[in-house]
Design goal:
This protein has helices spanning 44-51, 73-78, 95-105, 113-120, 136-148, 166-183, 194-200, 218-222, 234-245, 265-274, 289-297, and strands at residues 6-15, 18-28, 33-37, 59-64, 67-68, 80-83, 154-158, 186-191, 203-208, 211-217, 224-231, 250-252, 255-261, 279-286. The strands form 3 sheets. The chain has a 6-stranded mixed beta sheet with strand order 6-7-8-3-9-10, sandwiched between helices. Strands 2-1-4-5 form a 4-stranded antiparallel beta sheet. The chain contains 11 helices and 14 strands. The protein is of the alpha/beta class. The chain folds into 2 domains: 6-220, 3-Layer(aba) Sandwich (Rossmann fold); 224-294, ACT domain (Alpha-Beta Plaits, 2-Layer Sandwich). It binds adenosine-5'-diphosphate (ADP) and magnesium ion (MG). Residues 44-45, 158-159 line the site of magnesium ion.
Length: 303
């Protein structure tokens, strides 16, 4: 397996005596689209700002590839492209001229790459118009071209769909897919919208009150179900679940309840039957990412 492109370990941030980020660990691998999901005020932007060196962690470490953000800042930053706040441009010159100015400021950028990234984000027909005439979606695509110009290995986007119309959101999703496939880069996207994470990401970490409360593959969350069995021998069934499948079930209201991967259900049922347990009734409650999110964050007042 390849090495992570980003490892953040034990990140903490105190602002004005208040512990905003309590403990955050993130590992992102090449080619992954990693979702950072949490309600408003959860600490997403504060965390992302620490990952891209816009703010200093009170504790913890960030490695981008082999480089420590603290000790090897510029090498680490070469590997990251990001849009944290809204991308800033000179409004009264063209998108192309904006990119050209950026490219001329540093030898990290190769001017001839401009055309490649302009067409990558689909702005070739409007790139010579003034930025002031661009829609939000177009400005964001220009921001992406700007963030990608130095060919980073990791792209970090803070709530990239905020303020975009459905067409803009769709286009962004397509660009992100293409980025991973064609340029083999990893993408970290924060969002407060579950549906967005579900559509775009391979993995998700859910953050609330400055702490990651769950990290998992989106696929495995979606394939997880809560199963309720009404069966003849609850205790033996619970034991079988534990011994043969390493699943912890609970007995409640004369039912055995367990959270399992849906794919295993028929095998579990067959095993119960083989062990002479009579199944009267099986009920499946699919856990969506939304339900999981609500289960995990419910009752936690956002301050
Ligand atoms: N510079 C700051 N000073 C004081 N509080 C801050 C500052 N930045 C963020 N916060 C607080 O930290 C918490 C997390 O904010 P933020 O990271 O912006 O959340 P999110 O991006 O998930 O919506 C919020 O309660 C916010 O009010
Ligand atoms: Mg934010």
């Amino acid at each position: 397996m390849s090495k992570p492109i980003l490892i953040a370990h034990g990140l903490k941030k105190k602002i004005n005596g208040k512990q905003i980020i309590k403990n955050v660990d993130i590992e992102i691998y090449p080619g992954e689209v990693y979702g950072f999901l949490g309600p408003n005020g959860a600490g997403k932007s504060t965390t992302l700002r620490m990952l891209v060196g816009l703010s200093k962690p009170s504790a913890g470490s960030v490695f981008i590839g082999d480089y420590s953000l603290k000790n090897n800042f510029s090498k680490a930053m070469d590997l990251i492209g990001c849009i944290i706040e809204k991308p800033e441009f000179y409004e009264y010159i063209s998108g192309y001229r904006n990119l050209e100015m950026l490219a001329s400021m540093s030898d990290k950028y190769i001017k001839s790459d401009i055309d490649e990234f302009v067409s990558f984000v689909g702005l070739e027909n409007r790139i010579h118009d003034r930025v002031s005439e661009y829609s939000m979606g177009m400005k964001q695509r220009l921001g992406l071209a700007q963030a990608l110009l130095h060919r980073p290995k990791l792209l970090i986007l803070d709530e990239p769909t905020n303020g975009l119309d459905p067409q803009g959101i769709y286009t962004l999703r397509e660009i992100i897919k293409k980025l991973v496939i064609e340029k083999e880069i990893a993408v970290l996207i924060s969002s407060h919208l579950i549906s967005e994470i579900q559509l775009m990401c391979d993995k998700v970490s859910i953050i609330n009150h400055g702490e990651i409360i769950k990290s998992a593959k989106v696929e495995s969350i979606l394939s997880t179900s809560e199963i309720f069995w009404e069966i003849s021998d609850l205790r033996s069934a619970k034991k079988i679940l534990k011994e043969k499948f390493e699943i912890d079930g609970i007995i409640k209201d004369n039912q055995l309840i367990a959270v399992i991967d849906k794919e295993n259900l028929s095998l579990i049922n067959e095993t119960f039957i083989k062990e002479n347990i009579k199944i009267k009734y099986v009920y499946k409650n699919n856990k969506t990412l939304e339900e999981l999110f609500l289960d995990l964050t419910i009752g936690q007042q956002i301050l």
